[in-house]
Every structure is written in C-alpha cells, then in structure tokens.
Amino acid sequence: MSEPSRRTVPNLIGDAVREARDLVSTEIALLRVEMTDSLHHLTLALSLFIAAGVFAMAGVVVLILALVKGLAVLLHSEALSALVVGGVFAALAVSLALLGRSKATLSGLEPTRTERQVGQDVTIITERMGE
User: Fold this and answer.
1) Is 80 part of any domain?
2) Among 8, 20, 43, 71, who pairs with 81 as Cys (CB 3.0-4.6 Å)?
C-alpha cells in the first residue's frame, strides 16, 4: 500500500492560500471577460442605433416635407398643414419616448454567470470545510 503523504500544517495552509488566491484570480478573470463581452455588445448596438438614426432622420425629413406639401394642397394653407403634421409627429415622438423609457433596463449588464460561479464556489468550500 502506498504511504499517505506527510504534509506539515504550514504546507497545507500555504496550499490553501494559493488555491484561494487562484480561485479569486479566476473569478476576477471571469468577471472581466463577461463585462467586456457585455460592453462590446452594448457598444455595437449603440453604434448601429446611431447609424440607423442618421439615415432615418434624413428620410423622415423628406417624407415630412412631402406630407406638408401634399396636405397644403388639400387645406389651401401651407402653415396650417405644417402645424397639423408637426402636431402628429410631436405626439408620436412623445409616445415613443415614453415607451422607450419603460423598456430601458440595465439588468443585462449584471454579471450573472460570475455571481452563479462564486455562489457555487462558496458552497463547495463550505462543504469541504465541514468535512
């Protein structure tokens, strides 16, 4: 039979400290990767929204001008048609802003995988400490 290794208490404590340090380093690395990934996706999404907004604004301006001109023919007043179209678009803008505010959340930036992994590590450590 093989003889059990005879390790001293200072060696065991040193090993435990090294393993704890390695565990913390690994958890921090996981947090960094997860946060970097989340921020990358958020940055890409914001860039695409900005680009889409620039092109949409140009198109909307042209459409609004056409709508005002067309409505002016019916109402025989370009000023009145501009007020009607402007009022409709202002109401639409307020509605969309309120909807956007209700949908805005930062919960997607929470490091849930890291939290779960740290919880699992704590459970394992407490179980092993009880042995």
Assistant:
1) yes
2) 71
